[in-house]
Amino acid sequence: MAALRYLTLLWPGMPWLWLRGSRAGLVLALAFAIVLDVAILTTWIWSDLVDAGVPIGLWAAAAAVWIIASVSALSAFPTPLRTRRNAATDGLFVEARDAYLARDWLKAETKLRALLVVAPTDGEAQLLLATLFRRAGRLAEARTALDKLARSDSGAAWASAINRERTRIAAGASRPADAKPDLGPQPAILALDRPTAEGEPDSLAA
């Protein structure tokens, strides 16, 4: 599997595009493709329409982009995404959960963001972050977080919880500005393990 990951180095920008979905990686990959295509066209198809130096310059530019991008990618190659929690990420989630239950939104958000840096596919942490945004009244950010989770592979196991959160966000958005927010009942416990394929987990928070 590690060897397959390193095959992404063959195309500039592909390591970050394929392994992280980076927009910058997409721009670099498209730019290299355009330069390479134009170099091929001017060398073998439009050779009579351009000066001889144009194809040489394009090939040199393509080679320079490939070398620079490959060296840069090797120096900061994306690490494998964590699919399971370890002691460190478990600790961050516990701290985030405890801060969330205490309604310390700032600390909970800080811990969740730190966890998602090292484990960006952790669906439970993403859902808790979206729920935190809703409870803090940051409805636009809550919608964005839920949309991101719903589009990801890890979001499938949390489909029901995502729909419930969206319903609560819609209810909050339609409530008069002077009305008290509906924080919902406090959950008795939040699961620490990621959902399994055998069954769909309950929502992290009501």
Structural class: mainly alpha
Given as residue ranges, the uncertain stretches (5+ residues, pLDDT < 50) are 181-203
User: What is the chain-wise order of helices and strands?
Assistant: HHHHHHHHH
Morphology: elongated
How many β-strand stretches?
0
- In CATH terms, what is the fold-level topology of the largest domain? Serine Threonine Protein Phosphatase 5, Tetratricopeptide repeat
Fourth-level CATH superfamily of the largest domain: Tetratricopeptide repeat domain
The domain count comes to 2
How big is the Rg? 23 Å
Give the termini distance in whole angstroms: 39 Å
CATH architecture of the largest domain: Alpha Horseshoe
Class of the largest domain, according to the CATH hierarchy? Mainly Alpha
Counted by DSSP, the helix tally is 9
- Approximate helicity band: 55-70%
Which band does the percent of strand residues land in? under 5%
Folded structure, characterized:
The structure is a single chain. The chain has 206 residues and is mainly α. The chain has two domains: 2-75, no CATH class; 87-174, Serine Threonine Protein Phosphatase 5, Tetratricopeptide repeat, CATH 1.25.40. It has helices at 2-6, 14-20, 23-45, 53-75, 87-101, 105-118, 123-135, 139-151, 159-174. Helix 2 (14-20) packs across helix 3 (23-45), helix 7 (123-135) packs antiparallel against helix 8 and helix 8 (139-151) packs antiparallel against helix 9. The protein is elongated, with a radius of gyration of 23 Å. The two termini are 39 Å apart. The model is unreliable at 181-203 (pLDDT under 50).
